[in-house]
Amino acid sequence: MTAVAQPAAEAPLLDVRGLTAELSLEEGPVRAVDGVSFSVPPGGTLGVVGESGCGKSLTALSVLRLAPQPPVRVVGGEVLFQGRDLLRLSEAELRRVRGRHAAMVFQEPMTSLNPVFTVGEQIGEGVRLHLGASRSQARERAVEMLRQVGIPAPGERVDAYPHQLSGGMRQRVMIAMALACDPALLIADEPTTALDVTIQAQILDLLKRLQAERRMAVMLITHDLGVVAESCDAVVVMYAGRVVERAPVRELFSRPAHPYTAGLLRSIPSLQLAVGEGSAGSRRRLQAIPGMVPSLRKLPSGCAFRDRCDRALEVCARVVPPLEPKRGGQSAACHNPVPAP
Amino acid sequence: MTSEPLLQVRDLKVHFPVRGGFWGRARGAVKAVDGVGLDVVRGETLGLVGESGCGKSTLGRALLRLVEPTAGSIRFDGQELTGQSQRQLRPLRRRMQLVFQDPYASLNPRMTVRDILGEPFAIHGLARGRGEREREVAALVDAMGLPREALDRYPHEFSGGQRQRIGIARAIALRPDLVVADEPISALDVSIQAQIVNLLVDLQRERGLTYVFIAHDLKIVEYVSTRVAVMYLGRIVELAPAADLYRRPRHPYTQALLSAVPVPDPGRARTRMLVPGEPPSPLNPPTGCAFHPRCPHAMERCRRETPPLYPLGAGHSAACFLAEGDAREVAPTPTSGGEAGVLAQPSSPG
C-alpha cells in the first residue's frame, strides 16, 4: 500500500494552532493545555517532551479528540489535519479519520488492548471497518502486519490473546494495529516507557524503519530526552500546559533558548563521561533544577517557571512570555532567553 | 576504612516455588537469584543494573534478609545474617536500611512526618526522651532540605520528590552503615531526579554511608556508582569499577545494554548493537549461558556450559567464555567470590 496523504509540497500534515483544553477539578476548571501550537510535516517526526502534568499527553489526546469529556473540554484552537479542522468534524467524520489516516499508540499496551479478542481480530477490525476488507482479507493483513513488526511465527500469534504476549510483544501488536490502514500520522504517547532498555531500542528501531518505508509522520510524546535526540527532527518542550520552546532537534540540544530546556539538559548525567575512579562524592554535582513542577491549580503569575528559574527578571512575574522566534528556526517563550554559546 | 568488606555475599540463591494443580504442590522454582557472589566495600556505591525480572530487586532485599535466601551466605560486618532469627537480627537492622522506589506506597498515609521519622527510634528504643527525639527528627528534616513545618503534615501533602526525601530520612534516621536503594528515583520527574541523586551523594559523603544502588537507568548508575554489577536472569554477568565497565564492557549483554541507552546528543553518530528477542522466562531458563539465545557471539559451548565469572584484573570480571583467555587465575566456581579477592589487591597477572 502507498501512503494516502498527498498534500501540497511542504504544507504541514498536522497543524495545531492555539489548542486550549480545560480540565475540570473539584475547585473548578484549570487550563491543562494553554494555546499550544506546532506542526508536523509529512514524513517528519516531532517530539513533545515535558514532565508529568505538563499537558503533553492531553495535547496528543486532544488532537484526535480522544480525551474523555468530561473532565476535559477543548475550549479553543484548531487542529488542521490534511487541511481539515478535526475539532469541527462530526463524530462520524472523525471516525473515518481516526485509525485510518491518523492512529495512536499508547504507553501501556495491556490496558489499550481488549483482553477478550485475539490480536488478529483487533488488528483486522480497522482494516474491515475502514478498507472494507473481508474477514479472511483482514486476517491476512493482520498476519502481514505482525510479520512487519517482527513478531515471530505471525501465522500462529495472530490467534493469541494479549495476555499470552510479553510487554514488548504487546507494544508491537499495538503498532501493528495502528499501522494496519497505513495512516499518514502516528501519534505515539510514551510508547517505550514501560519497556526495558534493550526492548525499547528494538521498538524505536522498528518505528524508525516503518516510518521511513511508509513516509509516515510521527508525533512522539516522551519524557526521555535521549529518545527525542535519537528519533525526532523537531521538538516541542512543554511546561505547565504551555509550549516553552520549539526547535529543530540539533538546535534544541546544542543551544537551548529556554532556561527550563537548558536546566533539563544539565540535570541528566551523560553516558560514558565518568571521570576518574573515585567515589561519587568526588564527582561534579548534578545541576538540578530547584523547586518542583507547579500545580496547575496554583500557577504563579506571569511565567510558570519563574520561581525555579535562575534567569528570572522582574517582568517575568507580571507578563506571561509569548512563544516568539529567537534565532534560526528556534522559538522560546522567555523574556530572558539563554544566550547562544 | 578497614580492609574487610562491609558485606560479603557468597553463592546466594533465592528460589521461589511455583505452585500449581489442585493441591498447590510445588511444580518447580523461579530462580530469581541463582548463585550470586559479591563484596560491598565500606563507603562505596555498588550499582546493580539489569532489566526487569533479572533479580536485582530480589537480591537487594535478600541482602537485608527482607526475603529469605534459599542458600548461600551473607556476612554483614563479619556477622552471618542467614540462619538468624528475626529477633537476633534486630540489633543489626538499625545498621542496614532500604529506600523504596515508590514514595507514594512506602509511607503510611495516616502518620505525620514526625511520627514516620520518630518510629525507627521508637522501635529500637533510642532517643526516648521527648525533647531528644524531637531534636533528632528536626535534624533529619533539616538534612533533607525540608521545612520544619513538614513535621506536622501527612505524606499526601507532599510532592513525589519531597516524599522520597522523607523516605530517605527514615532510612538514615538511625545512622545505618548500609543503605540499599531500590530504584529510588525512577518514579520521579527528570528535573527532580537530579535533586535526589545529589542528596544521596551528599549524605554518603557526610555520613560515610555504603550504598547498594539498584536502578535500570544506566546513566544515573554510572554517575553514582564506584563499581557496577550487571545481572541477567538471576546471575551477575559482569562486575567492574564503574568507569571501566562503561568504557570497556566485556560481556556481550553489557555491551548491548549500554548500546541501547538513548543518548541526549543528536549530533552523535552511533552504531547500535541491537540484540534480538527478549529476556527468557526464569521459569524456563535456557541451558548453558542464559544470554546465548540473544547473543551475537554465541558458540556451541555457550549452549552447554554456564560460564563462570572470570576475574580479568583490576577488579573487572565477566561471565563470558570470550573473556576466558584474559582470566587472571583459574576460577574454581562462579560463586567463590574470587573476583573480590582480585579487587582488594593490585592485579597480579598470571
UniProtKB/TrEMBL annotation, chain A:
Organism superkingdom: Bacteria
The protein's name in its UniProt record: ABC transporter ATP-binding protein
UniProt-listed GO biological process terms: peptide transport
Keyword Signal appears in the UniProt entry: no
Any one GO molecular-function label of the UniProt entry: ATP hydrolysis activity
Family (UniProt): Belongs to the ABC transporter superfamily.
NCBIfam families: oligo_HPY
Residues of the ABC transporter domain: 14-265
InterPro entries: AAA+_ATPase (IPR003593), ABC_Ni/Peptide_Import (IPR050388), ABC_transporter-like_ATP-bd (IPR003439), ABC_transporter-like_CS (IPR017871), Oligopep_ABC_C (IPR013563), P-loop_NTPase (IPR027417)
This protein's GO CC annotations: plasma membrane
Keyword Zinc part of the UniProt annotation: no
Record's bilayer topology term: Peripheral membrane protein
Keywords associated with the record: ATP-binding, Cell membrane, Membrane, Nucleotide-binding, Transport
Upper classification of the organism: Bacteria, Pseudomonadati, Myxococcota, Myxococcia, Myxococcales
Cellular localization per UniProt: Cell inner membrane
UniProtKB/TrEMBL annotation, chain B:
Gene Ontology BP term (one): peptide transport
Keyword match Transport: yes
Pfam family, one: ABC_tran
Region (Disordered): 330-350
GO molecular function term, any single one: ATP hydrolysis activity
Domain ABC transporter as annotated: residue spans: 7-258
Keywords: ATP-binding, Nucleotide-binding, Transport
SMART domains attached to this UniProt entry: AAA
Keyword Transport annotated: yes
UniProt cross-references to PROSITE patterns, sorted A to Z: ABC_TRANSPORTER_1 (PS00211), ABC_TRANSPORTER_2 (PS50893)
Family per similarity comment: Belongs to the ABC transporter superfamily.
Protein name: Dipeptide ABC transporter ATP-binding protein
Organism: Pyxidicoccus fallax
